[in-house]
Amino acid sequence: MSFKSSKISSFRLWGLLLTMAGMGMMILGTAGIVFWGHSGKIVAAIGLVIGLIAMLGSLAVYFWAGILSTSAVQLECPECHKLTKMLGKTDRCMFCRTILTLDPEQANITADELEANQSATLH
Ligand SMILES: [Zn+2]
């Protein structure tokens, strides 16, 4: 997976991956019955259990992402001027993936400086 996306986006990606893995396991398990007949039922049972756990896991990830996004700070991105959400003190913009920070010590450029730079290059 890409680490260059915002935290909320990567949570959603993991949730989706877990859901797909869970469904895949259930389908494979059911296919086990078709291919191996009676003995395939054990494979099917294991597949269903693992699939169910993966699905529950994805639900937990989605739930967690939901809680996190309510506590996320909403702000206008200084780079692309779209409304984005950030988690914690440092996160990436959901649209242009610029690294944003609320910590003045970690920032190497302020929003005002960026604004000044942008208007300087435009003119
Ligand atoms: Zn942006």
UniProtKB/TrEMBL annotation:
<keyword id="KW-1133">Transmembrane helix</keyword>
<protein>
    <submittedName>
        <fullName>Uncharacterized protein</fullName>
    </submittedName>
</protein>
<keyword id="KW-0472">Membrane</keyword>
<keyword id="KW-0812">Transmembrane</keyword>
<dbReference type="InterPro" id="IPR020912">
    <property type="entry name" value="UPF0295"/>
</dbReference>
<keyword id="KW-1003">Cell membrane</keyword>
<feature type="transmembrane region" description="Helical">
    <location>
        <begin position="42"/>
        <end position="65"/>
    </location>
</feature>
<feature type="transmembrane region" description="Helical">
    <location>
        <begin position="12"/>
        <end position="36"/>
    </location>
</feature>
<dbReference type="Pfam" id="PF11023">
    <property type="entry name" value="DUF2614"/>
</dbReference>
